Amino acid sequence: TKETAYDYVVVGGGTSGLVVAKRLSEDLSVSVLVIEAGDSVFNNVNVTNPNGYGLAFGTEIDYAYQTVNQTYGGGLIQTMRAGKALGGTSTINGMAYTRAEISQIDAWEQVGNDGWNWDSLFPYYLKSEHFQVPDEERTVAAHLPFDKELHGLNGPLKTGWNYEQTNSSLTSTINSTFKAIGVPYNPDVNGGNMVGFSLYPFTTDSTLHVREDAARAYYFPYQNQTNLKVLLNTKANKITWSQNSKQNAATAEGVEITSSDGTTSVVKANKEVILSAGSLASPLLLELSGIGNPAVLSKYDIETVVDLPTVGENLQDQMNNGLSFNAANGFSLADKTSYIAYPSVSHIYGNETLLVAENIKASLPEYAAQVAAVNGNVTRASDLLEFFQMQWDLIFTSQVPIAEVLVYIVNGVWTTEYWALLPFARGSIHIGSDSTANAVINPNYFMLDWDLQEQAQTARFIRKMYATAPLAGMVLDETRPGLDTVSAAADDAEWAAWLKSAYRSNFHPVGTAAMMPKEKGGVVDANLKVYGTSNVRVIDASVMPFQVCGHLVSTLYAIAERAADLIKKSA
Ligand code: FAD
Asked: Which end of the chain is more exposed for a tag (fewer CB within 10 A), N or C?
């Protein structure tokens, strides 16, 4: 017999959704339902293999969303990957566990989200984490950088280093090289100060040698709890609304779902509906439920329930490019570690930093006007200017990292993937039909001058790194892009031609249901409740108002942990 009413209905059993569901179900008197479009991937080797990054791409557990042609980004269509599985995108991601800068989480409160700052979020990073402390011998041999005080030891999510990293051989070489170009060693990237060279931990089970995803951390150990139910292979279509909605606030009655057998029904929510479908799906579900821009909704005959035009706006992602060099004499080809550096603007621009700072500052009003014009002033230039000034401060005053540089050896080739961390571009995602299919996704890659400059200057910085001892002695010629393609003295325009032909999404889309005051274009308030509703929240990457310098999951687990406490408190 099918139960049709639960206290909380969580849409999306992914990275964030499973945290919320598990925590809410700790109160055994409360019933929680999770609706998940994908299946269990507990035994899927494309998921479990801790060195299997990329194996799941293009398989049935990868949504592989397609963007529209990128006007500023070489006219290309980009693939934005996301996991369709219990555990969501944490089942296919790169497993990197790096948090954010103190000042950039503090910016969330500065913009008007009361209670969201580094000090209030930090305990939740720790609450979610089970840091597996490596044994001393390995720590010393591999220079594993960590400060135990900055890690949680008792949370559900296992983090730590994989076998390959604890056998790394190049840490000193790469550390010395970065030092020579001004980038210091960072003894732990997860304490809110990210600048420097480091070796980051992974979301991994160091004992079983399997990927640690959200389902392994937050669901499978609790799956026998009778008040926590998961419906797999089940798609949420939209929120249904109660006829007795409170005045001025729409009240969700439940969620319309389509089961694996094709039948459609409604599951009721006695208390709340929580959207955790990810930043490329939750805003679509809001629109399909009548929350959004009436001009978008009316195209598909959707009646407006809450007029909230910024749903789906503020999309922020990064561009990923790569440089490669042949290795000298097969040097250290057995090394299977990835090394990272987070340089600041001063590391990347050196003596030019002040000049660049002034130029960018002078450009901010124009950037804000451009972004507003492109989205038809749905987000206002005056609000964007405030956000951009905050971001400028992070870059040039707080000096947060402005690039992630990832170095590893693959098939005998030194490979460096990198992404400028803080482009100013904003894009959008909206429905393109009366279902989640055919969404119109537009990140506006390379939209603004800074976005290109930052990406080009980081490429020059990487060339400099490979030309600096001791690393310089281990590499031969540059194979990607190669000096024939982009000359040694290339200006931004020459770099642009190649960068825009060879980039991909960095798979870090955020902001599409941004947590901000409503008058500044926010979609959810500081309790993550959707404006104009009495019982609908969004809890996933959509709510992050601004991009962060770290990879996303550590921060998403922390947000979801804190959100679960906010819900418990309000109940
Ligand atoms: P998700 O985890 O995507 O969860 C959304 C869930 O909702 C999914 O399970 C989905 O199937 C379900 N869903 C969607 N629509 C519906 C519907 N209509 N009905 C029912 N269910 C639905 N971050 C890191 O920290 N480190 C990394 O190394 C890293 N590498 C990455 C590599 C790749 C290839 C990608 C794509 C991302 C990477 N990220 C990384 C980013 C990070 O993994 C994601 O930002 C994060 O997992 C997103 O979490 P979420 O809770 O917002 O959404």
From this structure: N
Ligand 1 atom nearest to CA at 542: 52
Gap between the Cα atoms of 300 and 289, Å rounded = 12
User: CB under 8 Å to 336, separation ≥6 — which residues?
Assistant: 51, 164, 167, 168, 408, 409
Report the distance separating Cα 188 and Cα 29, nearest Å.
41
Q: Are 239 and 255 in contact (CB under 8 A)?
A: yes
| Cα 84 from chain centroid (whole Å) | 16
Query: Does 348 or 1 have the greater pLDDT score?
Result: 348
Share of the chain above pLDDT 70, in %: 98
Taking only the tens place, the pLDDT of each residue in 436-452 is 999 999 999 999 999 99
List phi, psi (to 5°) of 385: -60, -40
pLDDT bucket at 1, cuts 50 / 70 / 90: very low
- Residue 25 neighbours by CB under 8 Å, 6+ apart: 31, 32, 222, 225, 227, 228
Cα–Cα distance, 434 to 289 (Å, whole number): 10
Q: Of 569, 567, 39, which Cα lies nearest the Cα of 273?
A: 567
Write the CB contacts of 235 (distance below 8 Å, at least 6 apart in sequence).
35, 37, 257, 258, 436
DSSP, res 287: H
Could you tell me if the CB of 13 is within 6 A of ligand 1? Answer: yes
Catalytic residues, which ones? 508, 551
The four Cα atoms 200, 203, 206, 210 give a dihedral, to 10 degrees, of -130
- The mean of the pLDDT values for the chain is 95
Q: How far is CA 155 from CA 132, 503, 560, in A?
A: 11, 36, 13
Three-class DSSP labels, 107-130: HHHHCCCCCCCHHHHHHHHHHHEE
CA 113 remoteness from chain centre: 19
Mutation pick for ligand 1 pocket among 89, 98, 436, 562 (CB with most ligand atoms within 8 Å): 89
Helix (H/G/I), strand (E/B), else coil: 440:
strand
Question: Cα separation of 511 and 436, whole Å?
Answer: 18
Q: Which tokens hold the place of 419?
A: 């992404």
**Pair of tokens at residue 330:** 């097969």
ipTM: 1.00
**H helices within 25-132, ranges in order?**
45-48, 102-110, 118-128
Residues in the chain: 571
C-alpha of residue 556 to centroid of ligand 1, in Å: 10
350 SS3 class:
helix
Average pLDDT over residues 101-110: 98
Confirm or reject: Cβ of 482 under 6 Å from ligand 1: no
Q: Give the helix/strand (H/E) hosting 361.
A: helix 353-374
Q: Is any atom of ligand 1 closer than 6 Å to the C-beta of 230?
A: no
Which secondary structure element, helix H or strand E, spans residue 59, and what is its range? Answer: none
The structure tokens listed for 365 are 């009003």
The whole-number average pLDDT for the span 131-136 is 88
